[in-house]
Amino acid sequence: MYRNLQAVFQTNRVFAFLVIFRWASLLPALLTIDAQTNPNQLLSPLSVLGIALFANLVISIVNDQLNKLVLEHPLLLGVDLFFSAGILAISGGSHSAYYLYALSPLLAGAFFFQMRGALIASLVFTPLYLFGHYTQPISGQTDAIAVITQLAGIWLMPILFAYPSILLKDINEAREQLSTARDELAQKHENLAAAHRQLEIIHDLTVLLQAAPDLVSVQERVLGAVTTDLGFSKAVVALVDPAREELGNWLVYPKNDSFPNTESMALKSENGEAIKALLNRNVFTSNGGRLVQDELLNNWLGQNKWLVIPLYLREHPVGLLFVDDTGITRELENTLMTVANQAALALGTTILCIDRARRLAVETERNRIARDIHDTVAQSLFGIVYSLDACINMLPARADEVRNELIELRSLANNAHDEVRRSIFDLWPSALTIELFMADLTNYVGSCCRPRPFSIIFSNNGDFNSLSSGMRRTVYRMAQEALANSARHSGAKSARLCLTVTDDEVYLVISDEGRGFDPEHALSRSQSREHFGLRGIQERARAMGGDCEISSRPDMGTRIMINLPIQGHRHHD
Hints:
By secondary structure, the chain is of the alpha+beta class. The protein folds into three domains: 2-181, no CATH class; 210-358, 2-Layer Sandwich (Beta-Lactamase); 428-573, Heat Shock Protein 90 (2-Layer Sandwich), CATH 3.30.565.10. It is built from 18 helices and eleven strands. A six-stranded antiparallel sheet has the order 3-2-1-6-5-4. α2 packs parallel to α8 (104-134), α9 (141-210) runs antiparallel to α10 (215-229) and α16 runs antiparallel to α18. The longest helix has 70 residues, at 141-210. It is rod-shaped, with a radius of gyration of 54 Å. Mean pLDDT is 79; it is low at 1-9, 526-530 and 568-573.
């Protein structure tokens, strides 16, 4: 309904209506021109009609200009009021055929200035009408009734016409307000649509990144979001290696065979504008300068105009994102920056996790090598030193025995050499069966405590061969250290080893009936080399997700109980 009213009360249509009314109001004068003969008239009926027609013609031709003048100078409407009153006065007063014509300026005042214009125009026109009427001879009661009726029309018609004028003004104001509100809503809709699009892209990117198996997959997902989702024709990403402080791992999308293989570059300003921007955290648009030091890569990048975006995770540089700058808008750039921030978070988190895992792996491997060397080389060297001391004591009276001992020491030194190689290269025979397990432990412990005899009582339950080679090696190292400590320090002649393998766990118990010790006091001496092996056993157990309990008291023997989980399944090599 509002649209219908708007169509009816458009300003230009009302202007046209006033002009048409002015022309139509001349029809009564035109149709009664022969009956308008009056000896008291100053001008002939035809002359009066000509004047009115000329006035209408002028108003029709310069209608727009007159409307603007009247709006700027309302007093100009008074000229039309005097002109219309004059037409009435010279054409018969209350008997004039131009009565409707004389109402035209009244309706115009009501239209231009609403109710106030209608009242003022009627108030001004009333005395003019009466003056023009009384310049004509009065013919009794009939003239009085006509005057009263026409005066009522002079007041009522402008007032009635003022109401639709007020309605038109209100409609126009409401239309402007609605138009403004519509524009605001359209802008808000565009902003919400852009924000929704950003959230969708970020959500999809986050979901995809959670499933990415490696860093290259993360790079591909980021490039896909920039090109496929945002519509950029081409994008390149390079990543920072935090350990080496280098920029490398260049990747382009869509894939291009002409993209050069590039070596990593040090994060130094002299290596190009792109790296300088990364160090200074500046976003810039390439202008054909030297983006990178590498000649082939710089020439390839020089074929396009790029928006270069440094990627940062907090204060840590993550990498660089190159996006084809052709036809980019401000809104699209804002969306791109939001996606770039999310990409920096994903890439940076992945890089930091990889770097942390690498550092942890290095530290773990160092600890493993330290334990292995202690468990193998140190023990072998201890045996060599122990035997050499015995040889020195036997010289020169027991030279034959010394010769035999030296032969044994040579064999022991060879074993130490083999153990060093195993520790360095992490080699361990996958065919370590339970038989080899018991035989190697017997030989090893025997070499550690010579010439004093020491025996091991084995007890085995479960399938030892079902364990992975790594688990078998760990169990062997733990047993080796525990038995070596017992052979050297307990004073006992034997130790008992009980090994039990279940579907879920491995249980290893080593016990002796020697002199014993205070575990808390012994393990608290962090610098004691004598008990470093016990701490190594505990660390190995914890690293495997298991436990190690050391139970001992002076003169009451020692019992070491170890349990290791098999991660809920059986391992086969």
